[in-house]
Amino acid sequence: MKNIKKFLSEIESLDVKLWVEGQQLHYNAPKGTITSTLLTQIRERKAEILQVLRQDDVIQPVQRNQPLPLSFAQQRLWLAEQLQPNSFTYNEPVALRLLGYLNIELLEKSINEIVCRHEILRTTFTTIDGQPVQIISANLEVKVSVVDFSNLPENERETKAQKFAQQEAELPFDLTKLPLIRVSVIQLSQEENILLITVHHIVWDGWSIGVLIRELSTLYRAFYYDQPSPLPEIKIQYADFAVWQRNWLQGKVLAQKLAYWRERLGNNLPVLQLPTVRPSTEVKTNRGASQSFLIPANLAQAIQALSHQEGVSLFMTLLAAFQVLLLQYTKQEDIVIGTDIANRNRAETESLIGFFMNLLVLRTDLSGNPSFRELLARVRQVTLEAYAHPDLPFEELVKALQPERSLSNTSPLFQVLFVLQNTPMPSLDLPGLTLKEWFWRNDTARFELAVFLTKTPQGITSTWRYNSELFTESAIADRRAVGIAGMASHFETLLNNIVKQPNARINSLEILTEAEKKQQAMQNNKRKAFNREKFIKITPTSINLSSLNLVKTTYLQAGNTFPVVIQPLADDVDLADWAKSNREFIENELLKHGAILFRGFQTNTVKEFENFAGAVCPNLFGDYGDLPRTGEGNKVYGSTPYPADKAILFHNESSHLHCWPLKIWFFCVQPALQGGETPIIDCRKAYKILPAKLREKLAQKQFMYVRNYTNNLDVIWQDFFRTSDKSVVEDYCRQAGISFEWYGDDSLITRQVRPALAVHPQTGESVFFNQIQLHHIAYLDIKTRESLLSLFDEKKLPRNVYYGDGTPIEDDVIAEINQVYQQSQTSFPWLKGDILMLDNMLCAHGRSPYIGQRKIVVAMGEMIHSNNIAKPKEEEGSIC
User: Fold this and answer.
1) Of 32, 474, 677, 814, which residue is least crowded by CB atoms under 10 Å?
2) Shortest CA distance to 164 belongs to which of 206, 195, 205?
3) Do domains 4-56 and 68-241 have the same CATH topology?
4) Which residues form the Condensation domain (predicted)?
C-alpha cells in the first residue's frame, strides 16, 4: 500500500481538494474525478487522512533561513505605508499613570525581556524580489526615554504631558528600521509617572496590550525581588502564524470564505450620508479628535436586561440602537458598519504579541419600519453569521469586492466603526505602584467616525473618535451637521426610549432631548411666519411627483425578508404608473429578495393587473400552453386547473423545458374562503441546505422529465402545443432537444433531460431549479398514486421524473429533497387585490388546497433560454 503522503499527493495531482470539518472529511473535485474506486480508497484511509490534514492545521515553527511572508493584515498596513510614507495613522499609543516609586532600570529590563521573548517586536519589513517580507533581528535593546516635568509648576505639568504624549503618538515609524516600539516615562513628580508605549500597528493590536501588561507585571515583580523570569518559553512566534495563515488561507479554503462574504455583502455597498460639515470626498487628512461620554449605570442595566430578555448580547442591542440613530440621520435603510474582533480563535495565539485583529463588515436591512425588537432579531442574525465567519482577512474581502475607491481617507467598505471593547485587560501589579488609566486625546482618525464602548461599574463609557474635518465637537450653523456631543446625547436619548418601548417602530423612536424639541418647535413657528409673509411673492411652478416617496417596504414576519412587501403610502397611488418610473427599484428588490408582494394598491381588475405587469416587463409572454386563457386580458392566464382539494406542489415554472419565464405575477381577484395560499420556496436557500453529496449527484446526473399527453388525465398535446399537426409537434421537439414517441390512437410521450441545479443569469447565484415535486410520482398522495399505478404501467404515467440516464431516483433522495422544501418555504393568506411577483429562478411556487371560490390570474414575462444558463461548476461532497 502506498504511504499516505504519496497517496494524498496523487489525489492532489487530480485537482481533488480534501478538508476536515469536525469529524467529516469533505472533498471538492472536477466532475467525474471521484470514481467509485477512489472513493472507496479514501474511505478506507480516512483515519490516516484526518491525521495528516489535522497536522497541517497546527501552527508549526518554521525555519528562519528563508523569506518570511507578512500576514494578510500586515500586508494591508505595509501597502498603506507605501502609499502614505511617514504617516502616524497606524501608531498605537498606550498611556498608563503610575502612582508610587517607579524603578526605571527594572522597567527597562522588563521591557527588553518582553522584546526578547516576542520576535515581532524585533521585526522590520522590506522587499525581496518585489514581495514584502519580515526581517527578524536576533537582538534589540529598547531604551526607556525619561521626560522630567516635575520642576514645572503643578498646574502646567498635565498640559505639558498631554502635549508630549500627542507628539510622541504622531512621530512616524520607519518600517525598515528598528525599533517599531518606543517607551517613554513622563515624570510629573517623584511619586507620579506616566508610562507611554507607542507601537506600530503592524506588530501590535489591542489584545497585545493585555499580553504586554501581563508580562510586564510578572517580570517587574520578579526582577524587583531579584528572581529570574518565571514566564514559560513561547513555542511559536507571530512569523510562524503568518506562514501558516498564508499556507492555509488559499485555494478551496479561501474560496469558501470569500463565497460567504460575497453573498452576504453583495455589490454596491451603500455610502452613508452622515451629518457632516462637508462631503467626505473633500477630506484629505486623518486629523481627528475624540470625546468621551458616560451612559449612566441605571440605563446600562436596563439595556443589559433587555438584551438578556431578547436573547442577544449587549453589543447587538447597542449596535441595533446605533443603526437606528444612523437611520434617523441619513434616512438610509441599508446600513453598513464595521466592527473589529480579536481573531484569537486558536489557543496558541492567545499569549502572542502581534497583529491578529480583523475587521468584520455588518450590513443590516432596516427597511419596513420594524419594531426595535424585530430589528434586534435581524441584527442578531447578521452578527452571529459574521462571528461564524471571522477568518477572512479584511484586505482579502476588499480585494474580492473591489469597491470604488474614494479620494477621501474612508475605509473602502465602511465609514463608521462600532466596537464594544471586551478584550481582557489585566491589572498592572507592580511592587510599590498603583495603576490608573490616563485619559488623553489621541487625534488620529482612521474612519470618518469610530465609537468605542466599554462597560464599567459606573455605566457604559462611549468614546467617539472622529475626523475633525467632517465633524465638530458641538452643533454649528449648518442645520444638517450634528456635533459629536449632540450625537452622543441623541444616542443616550434613543437608548432611554428603546428600553421604555422596545415594541415601538424604529421610525417613531425619538432621539431629540426635550430642550431640542422645544427649540425645534420655536424655529418651526418662526419659519412658518416668515413663509406666510413671503407666500404671496412666490410664482406658482409645477413640481415633479415621480421622486416623492409614494411606497414603503416591509415584511410579513419579523426576521423573514422573503417575500418583501411593498405598500402604498397614499390611497391614490397608481401602481402601473409608479412601476414605470421605478423599474430599476423593483428589479433590484426582486433580485435581492426573490419575491415581492404588492399589497394595498387599488388594483381591482385583470386589465389593471396586466397594465402593471406590462409596466415592469413590456414584453409579456402570450403563448403559454400549460395554462388556460382568462379572456379578460391579452396576455393573462387563469391558474392551473387542478382539483381544489389537492395541493399543487412546488415547482419552478417550465424548468423542465428548454425555455421559461424569468418573471411571474399572480393577481388575487378573489381569495378562497379557506386555504388556497400560494406557498413559495427560496431556491437559493434550498440549494445551500441540500447536502453536499446530493448537490454533486444532482449536478452530475440531472433530471429526465417524462410526460404522457393523454386525454382526460393531463393536458392533451393539441392544447399544449397549440396545434393538431403532429409534424409541427415533432419539429418543435427536435429543436428543443426533446425525444418523443407516438403510441396508441393519438397519444404522445416526451422525454427531456434538464438540469436540477442552475446559476441565476443576473445574480450569479446557484439555485435549486426544477419540477421534481410536480412531476415525480412519489410526491402524489398514496391514494392517487395507488390508483394511477393500478390503471397504468409506470412508463405510461401522465408524469414522472428519473435521473438523466433513465435510472430511478432513490426514495431517500426524494425524502431529502422533500425536507429541503419544507425548510425553505413561506406561505401567507391572499388578500383581494394582492399581486405576488416572483423571480422564477430564485423562487419556486405551489398552491394549497382550498374551499370556496378562488380566482388567481397569472402573467409571465422575460422568457429565457436554457442555452443562456450556466450550471454550478464545482463538484463538492462529504466522504464519510
Assistant:
1) 32
2) 195
3) no
4) 68-519
